[in-house]
Amino acid sequence: MGSSSVRLALLLLPLHAWLSLGFPGSGYSPLEDDEDVFSYPRQKDTPWCSPIKVKYGDVYCRAPHGGYYKNVLGTRCDVRCRKGYELHGSSQLTCQPNKRWSDKVLCKQKRCPTLSMPANGGFKCIDGAYFNSRCEYYCTPGYTLKGERTVVCLDNKSWSGRPAMCVDVEPPRIQCPSMKERIAEPNKLTVRVFWETPEGRDTADGILTDVILKGLPPGSDFPEGYHKIQYTVYDRAENKGTCKFHVKVRVQRCNKLHAPENGYIKCSSDGNNYGATCEFSCIGGYELQGSPARVCQSNLAWSGTDPTCKAMKINVGVRSAAALLDQFYEKRRLLIVSTPTARNLLYRAQLSMLQQSQCGLDLRHITVIELVGTYPTLIGRIGMRIMPPALTLQLRLLLRIPLNTFSILLVDKHGMDKERYMSIVTPISLFNLIDTFPLRKEEMVIQAEMGQACN
């Protein structure tokens, strides 16, 4: 009974119902859209809009009332683009009565922002700025890449890394000359040294700061020893380039000379360097024998012979007072004490004071000559040496010394009459006067250097 009823119902179905079931799963209507037999609303499951196909995308449709076809009137479709693509248009479409979908959609390939060109460099890309494109940065010679070398355009339309930069990290190059070795000039402890100022070279843009020198500049007088010369340059990125070299100055020297016993030495320059001159002199009462001056020669040997200071020998057997005085010329100062008799109190007092100041007399190169008595019992004395009466008289007459009164005469090393006293003079007053003489001032400097002084 049941099967007979089903067969009867199927026979009674309208013709258009059978025709609508003729294309299962096709999604397309076998009839033209203007066939009245399939017009809405007589059949809601008839394909109505064109099938949706989105390149690089996927479509998910839902027919009304759960119908089989996915493009009937009222169908709603969700559109999704594949990875790397983005939807242009509505993400949900509806099949409308005008047989058109509610919007036009398109999946376009995603595009990242255009990369900025790094200064002093560039980049190369496989596929422009589109999704999954790889771009590689590079720098011009002299610059170093800072950041990621390769970036990829991601699905979120951003690059995989931060933009790279080309930075100048390589220091500029500068080359100094080789070490300079020189010998000091004659009679000097220095030598003038010249060289070309080195120039720096930048590996990047070629722009450098001024060359900065640390040390003496070329053309300077360099003293003995090692001298460090350093040049520094900076580029615009403040990278520093440095080079250095040394200047070595040698002083050629002879062996060191010393003052002779009872004498002095005075040398130029450093005393024993090539070209230096050493002059010798003796203290009062001594005469120089040998070379008065010696020079350090290029073979590092001294010229001349070793000097010595011998005790001065005074010859009282000369025939004239002038010949006697010539023996003291430029060597000794004379203090001539004259008295008519040895019993003279001024004479005795004066000798006593001079004897107590013998160190001061020697320091100032003073020789005391005593003239005692009157002619013909006249005698003269220089230390332990006795002068003949005739020579003593000549000396009084030559120097115009009074015969019958006590007097004192001071004569300098050049034979000049410097001061006359008619009474006793204290050694301090006498020394103070002598110390004002120009030649004595030079002697004082030498004696101070030699450490000669009276206690």
Automatic annotation (TrEMBL):
<dbReference type="GO" id="GO:0005776">
    <property type="term" value="C:autophagosome"/>
</dbReference>
<dbReference type="GO" id="GO:0006914">
    <property type="term" value="P:autophagy"/>
</dbReference>
<feature type="signal peptide">
    <location>
        <begin position="1"/>
        <end position="22"/>
    </location>
</feature>
<dbReference type="InterPro" id="IPR043555">
    <property type="entry name" value="SRPX-like"/>
</dbReference>
<feature type="domain" description="Sushi">
    <location>
        <begin position="59"/>
        <end position="109"/>
    </location>
</feature>
<dbReference type="Pfam" id="PF13778">
    <property type="entry name" value="DUF4174"/>
</dbReference>
<dbReference type="GO" id="GO:0060244">
    <property type="term" value="P:negative regulation of cell proliferation involved in contact inhibition"/>
</dbReference>
<dbReference type="GO" id="GO:2001241">
    <property type="term" value="P:positive regulation of extrinsic apoptotic signaling pathway in absence of ligand"/>
</dbReference>
<dbReference type="InterPro" id="IPR035976">
    <property type="entry name" value="Sushi/SCR/CCP_sf"/>
</dbReference>
<dbReference type="InterPro" id="IPR000436">
    <property type="entry name" value="Sushi_SCR_CCP_dom"/>
</dbReference>
<dbReference type="GO" id="GO:0005783">
    <property type="term" value="C:endoplasmic reticulum"/>
</dbReference>
<keyword id="KW-1015">Disulfide bond</keyword>
<dbReference type="Pfam" id="PF02494">
    <property type="entry name" value="HYR"/>
</dbReference>
<keyword id="KW-0768">Sushi</keyword>
<dbReference type="GO" id="GO:0001845">
    <property type="term" value="P:phagolysosome assembly"/>
</dbReference>
<dbReference type="InterPro" id="IPR025232">
    <property type="entry name" value="DUF4174"/>
</dbReference>
<feature type="disulfide bond">
    <location>
        <begin position="282"/>
        <end position="309"/>
    </location>
</feature>
<feature type="disulfide bond">
    <location>
        <begin position="139"/>
        <end position="166"/>
    </location>
</feature>
<dbReference type="InterPro" id="IPR003410">
    <property type="entry name" value="HYR_dom"/>
</dbReference>
<keyword id="KW-0732">Signal</keyword>
<protein>
    <submittedName>
        <fullName>Sushi repeat containing protein X-linked</fullName>
    </submittedName>
</protein>
<feature type="domain" description="Sushi">
    <location>
        <begin position="252"/>
        <end position="311"/>
    </location>
</feature>
<feature type="domain" description="Sushi">
    <location>
        <begin position="110"/>
        <end position="168"/>
    </location>
</feature>
<dbReference type="Pfam" id="PF00084">
    <property type="entry name" value="Sushi"/>
</dbReference>
<feature type="domain" description="HYR">
    <location>
        <begin position="167"/>
        <end position="251"/>
    </location>
</feature>
<dbReference type="GO" id="GO:0034976">
    <property type="term" value="P:response to endoplasmic reticulum stress"/>
</dbReference>
<keyword id="KW-0677">Repeat</keyword>
